[in-house]
Amino acid sequence: MDLRFVAPDLSVSPQITPSDVGVAASQGFKSIIINRPDGEGNDQPTSAQLMEAAKRHGIEARFIPVESGKVTDADVAAFKAAMLELPAPVLAFCRTGTRSVTLWALSQAGHLSVDAILKTASDAGYDLEGLRPRLEAKAKGADEGLAPAKARDVVIIGGGAAGIATASSLLKRRPGLGIVIVEPRNHHYYQPGWTLVGGGVFKREETERSMASVIPKGVEWVRTACAGFAPERSEVILEDGTRLHYKTLVVAPGLKLDWDAIDGLQETLGRNGVTSNYKFDLAPYTWELASTMRGGRALFTQPPMPIKCAGAPQKAMYLSCDEWKRRGVLSDMEVYFHNAGGVLFGVADYVPALMKYVDQYGINLKFNENLIAVDGASRKATFRVADGDETREEVRDFDMLHVCPPQTGHDFMKKSPLTNEAGWVKVDDQTLQHKDYGNVFGLGDGCSTPNAKTAAAVRKQAPVVAHNVLEVLDGRAPNAVYDGYGSCPLTVERGKVVLAEFLYGGKVAPSFPAWMIDGKKPTRAAWLLKEKLLPAIYFDGMLKGHEWLAGPKVLPHRPTAHDAQAACVDPSSKKVA
Predict the structure, then answer these.
(1) 4-139 with 151-255+409-481+550-570: one CATH topology?
(2) Transferase: is it a keyword of this entry (predicted)?
């Protein structure tokens, strides 16, 4: 648990689990207040489960659900009453803790000074400065609703690879630009490294940095979650209800790993032989299984596209097979690759090299098979098998199951006016400018472009967005273009990688001459790039605005009246002129 002390009678935290309730009880908490509504995210336990856990541990619980971005006076009154009625100390929580600390702050208006309230929240890790006008109004006995919007040159949603890289590229081009990053997490992860954690090459901690250490100097970090968007007013709505006004907006929220879309998966992750390199805390378990198994059946799954790093499910499989081969137990293993799609890899040029390893490891390929349920205790996996126009379900036993979860847009994005029907930020495939709002851009895993969702794609997208944002701020039309570049270093064995690089339409696009790295063959040079160079390129290059081999292609600018209008937005019409 990430407990944040607020007052002698109150601490707040991000989402907790039923097992965390027992931890809270052992630490002396007498009550919990649940501020997150049920059903807000697929990864959260229900209020009933949490209240049952509280009952088991002899502490009281109160359910005061607050909609993200809409903390009402009625919510504040209910919270204040609960604090008076419940035995102290109390632990209050929501998705990030922001709504809980906001309720406390508003409940103290008129009792504590506004400065004292804001400092207390800041000491707990929450920036509520945008709440100041509402706090001051409440302290005077008035109700002036939400805080007035603040104007920023650029507001960036998301502190992942896309958000940080874009902020750094912007500052490289224009130092002193007013940039805000909205990100509730305290940690930043090099997710491409988790494959190598699961393969016993990296330590998990090598892939983690503090968020504070990667956010560029001069960028304001708002440590809360985004709750919604009002693009017709050029505003972002934060979880505490305050709003940020922007001249330009960059939306880089990433995507959601939908673990709950597979029945029974959540309950067995991390035990019963069920693992996934798609989670920071589970990748070591993948290596534990691969390095200790001496025989049995191992299943590796891949859901329908899109997913981040389409080669990652295969990488886990190849590295596990390589370990079993090294220990001389591969002949005692049955290995299956269950792919919801119909091909091994989406770019055909790289399939021959991969098929050699499929044959070498004796892997059984199962196409058009999608994992839909897991019974961890019985070690059984259920697949929906598509056979022409018909489907059927098949159950298979396993000793090891590596799962790649289905992936979708975040829930708060799906409800926004910025996304398409599938929940992805709808942008132009080349300029990455939003199709309806000209001062909005999107990039990374959460946008609608039909490229592979990889960190390599972000490395190429961030400079394009940075250039085009500045064009719009200067009253010109975007003229930098993204060509769909993506890369997937497919680790086929420890020490060799097939370096797949491609553009829109699956066109092969190698960055190196064939004598250096032939991407269609497994090479030691590509492994050294993956293991030794790419982490440094990520942390010390991309996240710091260095655009080595990633500078944007800029088309000639024609300064016409039409182009000048194209950079302007008419919010009322929701159109780019």
Answers:
(1) no
(2) yes
